[in-house]
Please model this.
Amino acid sequence: MSAKKIARNVDPIELGINDFLGSLSDDEIMNMIGKSLGGRIDFLPALMPEVPAGFYLDEDVIDMRFLRPGAYEVIVRMTETCYMSCYFMQQYGHVHVACRWDDILDFVWKGFEAPTVMRPFYEVRPEFREKYPRIASLFGQKENRNGIPLPEPYITTIGLDGQPKVWWLSIKLVGVSDDRFDDWNCLGICEDHLALEAIDKLRYACADIFSEIKRSDAKSPKELMHRYFGVDNLKKTHLADIL
Model:
């Protein structure tokens, strides 16, 4: 009988905790950790045509809820027919403010030259930059001269919460203390300019990405976007004011 099969049918204490954990895959271990902290997060798509259940946006533009220690879910009104979801998650000493684009942006890989020994970074192809200037500018995290992430949006593939990697539009905030992060609960996030500005930057970046895909001649990203988001129109000139 394999170790994995033993682990499913024998008490971990009886088997021995080290042998038990050694029999699990990384995903299974992350599942266990997630459940111990309140369950793995069921991430919402970046954009939605309606306010999801459990959130209330009558006169307000932003609503949020505590998911578990180190994680908030935030819903933001973009327009009267479009809402954005984003997540504030503490991870490795910084805070990810991110909204999920799933596999919609897979086409982006075709627009970049892969790194080489002589050029150890991704390089955008001219034709891609011409067709998708905003998306091209969002590729990759921006840093200052000291290698510290700037609070600017960028697109990347991330495996948040130990889940498989998908595309996210993200901003990485550094220097946010645990106390400050905790103060963002119960809509305290609306009182902190750093957090509010991050949300606002994500909103405009989402609208830019949506518009560039919408007006392109690429059918697959459009179909994926419509199926995943269910949103037909989004113009950043119509965004509700939050700052």
User: Anything to note?
Assistant: Residues 1-12 have pLDDT under 50 and may be disordered. DSSP finds nine helices and nine strands in the chain. Residues 193-215 form the longest helix (23 residues).
